[in-house]
Amino acid sequence: MKGLLHRLLESLNLSGRDWAVLMLSLLLAFSMWLIHNLSLRYNGYLSINVVAHCNINGHSDVSAGKSEITARCRAKGYTILSSSFFSDKTVDVTFTPSVMKHYDADLYCVTSDDLQEYAHLLYGDGVTVEYFVSDTVVFRFPEVDHKRVPVTPVYSVSYASQYMGSGDFEVIPDSVTVYGEPFQLETIESIYTAPVKHADVSEDIHGVVGLKKLKGVRLSADEVHYSMDVTRYVEIVRTVPVETVNVPSGKEMIVFPSSVEVTLKCVFPLMADPYENLRFQADYSEFASSLSGKCIVRASQLPKGVISYTVEPAAVGCVMEDR
């Protein structure tokens, strides 16, 4: 056999350079064959180690340790080959809280049905999962200290002429859960939003704003929705008498000045005269506890359509007399 191979090589009469070309051609042909076959799709089992991220109330947002997920997949040859070479590869996957089911104590699981929507994150694009080997995959999310605090909006709003806010600046959610060490949580009483600025506003405002991050702690939400109702108004100025209320029997409270100038801001368009059933009063009980002998003039009850009012002067002097 050895002699036969020797005679065959002699008959080819290849020089050293020819040998190099031959070997290079064979190597190139093998590479093309390998690339072609690895680009074809095959069935196989792919395994991946997963660290889960999930915002679960009262628990860490990162799983302790990792869990292996194995699935029967259809993928290109080089994907299956690389999976066997890098079997210890770990990926971080963020799950929505709705798919993370409570299992036991601080254990949570994801079912194989819910895992289907995360297949591209687990194994990459171009991999089709036929089925997962396990019905559920369990992760442990350790409990952590936490507290619920309100969200305080930071905002600046200026309005176009004859427009104003007709309600509070609201945020949803209006509170968030803060996770951290006990000594950190003790000093946190509120979470502030990033600054919100609107200028020359003539319609309702709404949007999304991020929350200010605090070092060393985690928040249950990264952003909140905000809204504020804006309305057009008209101003109606009128001079009205000041009435007195809660005056003891046999006494009379005299106020000076006896009338004040009132400016009403009313929703446009007006449906009726806002002053028709509106009374402005000085309360004796306030005078009795006052050191200055003055009372704030207040509206009896604002009718529908009146947004706010101002009184000039805001307070009147009071004198008591017997009847």
Structural features, described:
The strands form seven sheets. Strands 10, 18, 20, 21, 23 and 24 form a six-stranded mixed sheet that branches. This protein folds into three domains: 39-140, no CATH class; 146-228, YbbR-like domain (RNA Polymerase Alpha Subunit, Chain A, domain 2, Beta Complex), CATH 2.170.120.40; 234-322, RNA Polymerase Alpha Subunit, Chain A, domain 2, CATH 2.170.120.30. A hairpin with a 2-residue loop joins strand 4 and strand 5 (107-111). With 323 residues, the chain is of the alpha+beta class. The chain is built from seven helices and 25 strands.
Q: How is the quaternary structure best described?
A: single chain
Instruction: Based on Cα principal axes, name the global outline.
Output: elongated
Largest sheet: 6 strands, mixed
* Tally of contiguous helical segments: 7
Class computed from helices, strands and strand pairing: alpha+beta
Distance between the termini: 143 Å
Estimated share of beta-strand residues? over 45%
Total number of domains:
3
Keyphrases for this structure?
323 residues; alpha+beta; RNA Polymerase Alpha Subunit, Chain A, domain 2; 3 domains; six-stranded mixed β-sheet; four-stranded mixed β-sheet; 46% strand; elongated
